[in-house]
Specification:
The structure holds two protein chains of two kinds.
Chain A (H helix, E strand, L loop, with lengths): L4 E8 L5 H9 L17 E8 L14 E6 L7 H5 L15 H10 L7 E4 L6 H8 L3 E6 L2 H5 L10 H9 L5 E6 L13 E6 L10 E3 L13 E2 L2 E2 L10 E3 L2 H15 E14 L14 E10 L3 E10 L21 H6 L11
Parallel strand pairs in A: 1-2, 4-5, 4-7, 5-6, 7-12
Antiparallel strand pairs in A: 2-3, 8-11, 9-10, 12-14, 13-14
Chain B lengths: L2 H6 L17 E9 L6 H7 L5 H10 L16 H11 L2 E9 L6 E5 L2 E2 L9
Antiparallel strand pairs in B: 1-2, 2-3, 3-4
The chains are: A alpha/beta, B alpha+beta.
């Protein structure tokens, strides 16, 4: 055996002196390792852990409770939780997803080298960072351009999403962020994305909006001429928006994913729901999307579920999302949230 | 905004449905910046079938960027082609200007590399 190697010896419940550690390593001399010892990036790394029970009353040095031996095959990526810790991030907003869940979502989406990932509710771009960390190329869009540009939220004056790209060195793989309403999106026809990863707005901390005008208010203000220019051509024109109901958001998202994902591509999204009323039948389904995983993160009165779906066949004809026939527990989530999830009775309905 | 993203966007104004006019959007008064990145051949090859090559050629010529007229038969093994493709769709950024629809004349503004594709209320 001529590959380079390294041993790590550790005591659990009793700390071992350097001499004790070396004697443990020497005890492996019968193995005839011929390769050089290399402390940094060795070809093979071995670990010996001697377990001595409770630290305040350890077993004698000669008789450990157990000796564990192993060879390093791979490492977990828990250090990434620290790397992407939102507290260390230059730019964030009030709905920025925490680092661990953003990383889990990137894994669920199979974010990998060469894939193209898209977030239609990009906000401050957490998922672009984690997906692109794993080698994927990413894009995002949002109806609110202030989030993308960094002209809203509590870290104003920082250069928006691009500040985070510079911080994490991901400007080569986070491709673009564009401002539009996913309900009226300008993507051309056909499948384009390997994954869609998103946290849809459920209207509690950030109001969910879509383009439109409420019935009964003055229409067509966009055509009004102001200072010789039609209103909608002025640089500060913001089109009117109306609230976007949670169950509509999810239905639209499934329809969008069914069209825009390539076959084998994944949709990963959060579904907030009222804890006691959730029924698996609440999940909207689609003929070309198969549920891969559905995991709950409970918060007491409500919970959110991380749903992973895979596109299993090309979209044919007019197949569309099938929304549950009953009222799902996520319908009118915002109102339910602010009424502290009181049970719906016939009187209050 | 990269030309890859531009290749994926069309005009989506209500009643603007002529496929020959709503796509590709025509650049107007643009500022362009080239930023070098390491090419990723796997990604480029994967994107090729998802690109509209005719639209890309038209756009590149509008911007006076040299582009091969057609995709070679075996692009995965044509390093020279992939490098050119990388330069065009990944390294070319439109930082300011706008994209105009030839069908309805809607002008989508690009500011600091971010395109505003929102529609006015009479357009939805």
């Amino acid at each position: 055996m001529t590959c380079s190697f390294k041993f790590t010896v550790d005591g659990f419940g009793r700390s071992l002196s350097q001499e004790e550690k070396i004697s443990v390593i020497e005890s492996f001399s019968f193995m005839a390792f011929e390769g050089p010892i290399k402390m940094k990036n060795p070809d093979a790394e071995f670990f010996v852990c001697e377990e001595y029970g409770e630290p305040d009353n350890p077993l004698p040095k000669e008789t450990p409770k157990m000796i564990w031996f192993g060879r390093l095959l791979g490492q977990g990526s828990r250090d990434l939780i620290d790397k992407f810790d939102v507290k260390k991030r230059k730019y964030l907003g009030n709905t920025t997803m925490d680092a661990e869940l953003s990383l889990v979502m990137a894994n669920q989406a199979l974010a990998r080298n060469g894939a193209l990932v898209y977030d239609p509710f990009v906000g401050t771009g957490s998922f672009l960072l984690t997906c692109s960390h794993f080698g994927a190329y990413s894009m995002g869009s949002d109806i609110d351009g202030r989030q993308i540009r960094g002209t809203a939220g509590f870290r104003r004056g920082v250069d928006g999403i691009s500040a985070n790209l510079a911080q994490y060195g991901l400007a080569d793989r986070v491709l673009d962020t564009v401002v539009f309403d996913i309900c009226r999106n300008p993507w051309r026809d056909g499948p384009m994305f390997d994954a869609i990863v998103t946290d849809p707005p459920y209207g509690v901390r950030a109001g969910a909006k879509r383009l439109g005008r409420k019935n009964g208010t003055l229409p067509e203000l966009s055509l009004k001429v102001v200072d010789g220019v039609e209103n909608h051509r002025r640089s500060d024109y913001l089109p009117p928006t109306v609230p976007y109901e949670m169950s509509d958001v999810i239905g639209d998202l499934l329809g969008f994913a069914a069209e825009k994902l390539v076959v084998g591509g994944r949709l990963v999204y959060w579904l907030p729901t009222v804890a006691g009323e959730y029924d698996p039948k609440d999940l909207p389904v689609h003929p070309v999307l198969r549920v891969v995983a559905n995991s709950e993160q409970p918060f007491g009165g409500w919970s959110r579920r991380l749903v992973t779906m895979e596109k299993i066949a090309p979209l044919q004809g007019d197949a569309s999302a099938e929304l549950p026939e009953h009222a799902p527990a996520h319908r009118n989530f915002r109102d339910r949230y602010f009424s502290k999830f009181e049970a719906i009775t016939p009187e209050t309905e | 905004m990269r030309l890859l993203t531009h290749n994926m966007l069309k005009c989506h104004v209500k009643n603007c449905t002529d496929p020959d006019k709503q796509y590709p959007l025509r650049f107007k008064d643009v500022q362009i910046e080239q930023i070098e990145y390491e090419p990723n051949e796997e990604f480029l090859v994967r994107m090729l079938p998802r690109l509209d090559w005719t639209a890309l050629v038209k756009t590149a010529k509008d911007l006076n960027i040299a582009i091969p007229d057609s995709v070679p038969e075996d692009p995965a093994s044509d390093q020279e082609f992939l490098q050119k493709l990388h330069t065009i769709i990944m390294e070319t950024h439109v930082t300011e200007g706008s994209m105009v629809c030839d069908g309805c004349s809607h002008e989508y503004k690009i500011t600091k590399g971010i395109a505003n594709m929102l529609l006015a209320e009479h357009e939805i």
